[in-house]
Model the fold of this input.
Amino acid sequence: MDDHPQEKGSQLLQLFARHGRELRAYARVILPSVDPIDDVMQEASLIIWEKQEQLRCEDEFLPWAKVIVRNVSFRHRRKLVRDRHVFDDELVDRILAEEQAELAENDRSSAEYGALMNCLNKLSDDRKQLILAPYRSAGAVKEIARQSNRSPNSLYKLLQRLRSKLMQCIETELKTEGV
Done:
């Protein structure tokens, strides 16, 4: 983040505004009701402001702020522990871990989809049509073979080689992106 205190504060406010909804949603998962969310977010924003020197770059803001929101939320939960409708901390931790795993899986799926689309776009139109044909309809490869005066067997062999090259391309793309 910027070294100038005034600009750093402005950046921090922008980051908090940009990610405020996500932070509120995160607190909502932890808290047993919506009632304390405003208090939690206010307390968390004060702590974020006080500890802004710990933040090294903008990309780290959301995970860093989630830790603060999580700690404040759990502190509020402990105040409400006498209410029998409040889940215990261990269960909430498991729910949060599952949510994080799901988000990581969604990120991986998005990266894989992006790599697939990039690799498909590198193919010529006729190769792309052949790759996609089996997913469009049953018998589509045989229809392409008939139209191009080729044997279905030769197209299936070509399709297998194209799939292999496509997989290699996707793996290369993912390695390049660090996924």
In short: The chain has a mean pLDDT of 83.
